[in-house]
Amino acid sequence: MAKCNLPKGILSISGKLGGMIFKTYTRPDGTTETRAYPNPYRQHGYQRTTPVTAKEKHQRAIFAQVSREVTRRLRSGDTRPRSIIWAEVKAALSNSTNL
C-alpha cells in the first residue's frame, strides 16, 4: 500500500489504472486519504482453480444469446431502455426453451 498525494484540484480518485487500484477513504473528521494498491489479478495473473461447469457454460450461452438479440433490437431502432428489452428477450427465451 502507498499513500498518494493528489494534484491540487483533485479531491479523490477511486478505481483501476494499469496495474494499480486507487481508493480514497474519508475519515470521520472529514479529511480524505488516497491509497494505491497493486492489482493482485494483474500482477500475478488470475488462475481459476476449478474447471468451468456445464451449468456455467449453459448460463454463458444464454447470456450471449440474449445480449446478441438485445443489441440487434437496439441497432434496428428500438428506443426502449436496454433493461426493458433485456427482460423481454430473456422471458421469451425462457418460455421457448427449458432453461
Describe this structure as you would to a colleague.
With 99 residues, the protein is α+β, with helices and mostly antiparallel strands. The chain folds into two domains: 2-44, no CATH class; 54-96, no CATH class. The N and C termini lie far apart (45 Å). It contains three helices and four strands. Helix 2 (54-75) crosses helix 3. The model has no long low-confidence stretch (mean pLDDT 86). The protein is 42% helix and 20% strand. Strands 1-4-3-2 form a four-stranded antiparallel beta sheet.
Integer-rounded radius of gyration:
22 Å
Low-confidence stretches: none
Number of helices: 3
Percent in helix: 40-55%
Count of domains? 2
β-strand number:
4
How many strands, which pairing sense, and closed or not: the largest β-sheet? 4 strands, antiparallel
Question: What's the gist of this structure?
Answer:
This protein is of the alpha+beta class and 99 residues long. 42% of the residues lie in helices and 20% in strands.
What layout of secondary structure does this protein have?
Elements: E1 2-4, E2 15-17, E3 20-26, E4 32-38, H1 40-44, H2 54-75, H3 82-96
Antiparallel strand pairs: 1-4, 2-3, 3-4
Helix pairs in contact: 2-3
Keywords:
3 helices, 99 residues, 4-stranded antiparallel β-sheet, 2 domains
